[in-house]
Model the fold of this input.
Amino acid sequence: QAGSMRSEVPLPSWEHGGPESTQCSLHPFQVSFHQLGWDHWIIAPHLYTPNYCKGTCPRVLRYGLNSPNHAIIQNLVNELVDQSVPQPSCVPYKYVPISILLVDANGSILYKEYEDMIAQSCTCR
Amino acid sequence: KAGKPSLALLAEAPTLPLIWELLEEAPVKQQRKPHVLGHPLRYMLELYQRSADTHGHPRENRTIGATMVRLVRPLLNIARPLRGPWHMQTLDFPLRSSRVAYQLVRATVVYRHQLHLNHLHLSCHVEPWVQKSQTYSFLPSRRGSSKPSMLSETWTEMDITQHIQQRLWNHKGRRILRLNFMCQPQKGSKVLELRWHGTSSLDTAFLVLYFNDTHKSVRNIKVLPRDPKEFMNNDSSLLLRRTR
Done:
């Protein structure tokens, strides 16, 4: 059903060959634990690459974005029914864990795997 | 909020589980990193390097078998006087209260089985401390032990999982694992007056606890049906789970 409606929805300018950098995508980003103020207890690693998602979500959510049906509907509601309902947001889709070696307050040394600490891909939802 | 430590800022969002966890592990405020050097730190650094790459990504082929490993150092170091050819240190290891989400899967004690002290060569082993009134047979000192590849030849690793799980882990309140570190002169060495001065307990033994995160399995447990009939007709594993 959405496919037949797509032709009626005007495309934003960047979808006609505008800058691709504004599209929702994964941006590599690295930070040191020193910058976060945690280097007094984290031994390894020194650098952390959480990455982030940034960009505009297209009005027609393509398959590769892994958007749920709800996001497609919300886009249509924004476009056709009520603009106070926001367009879907560009957010992380998949994450990977990070292993950290730290010293706790008692002097114990701890190896720990924290889930969902690094964004690996993005989605519009 | 310039100048405020980032963890203090995060503490203002106490509903986030990760923040609670970080606050629990992190030293208070911006205190200096506790002094940890020597074999304990070297052991954990090598364990880390085997399990994760330089960016902190867990290695796919890691053999650690746990999502959390805690190295615990002894609290007390009570040296006992000579008793026959044996020299003994009593080591107390504090065991933190077990958090529901983490299951103890393995426990080992890593200790020096060869010690050079006051020009004396000693052979050492570790035994769980037991009250005199109790009779308790423990595995022979070197059985189930192996030389940890992460340490030099003078160190040995001994599995004490069963001992901790059976005798300590399910106890409520403050739990202390007490071990005796016992040494005797190697053959050919003369027994001289022996003092432990210069050899702290931290240099002789430490405890390594391996845990697995059970968050995921907790999340996946189905909600029990309210109707008892439905409950009885359901999978028997549900019955077992409820009994537990």
In short: Residues 38-51 of chain B form the longest helix (14 residues).
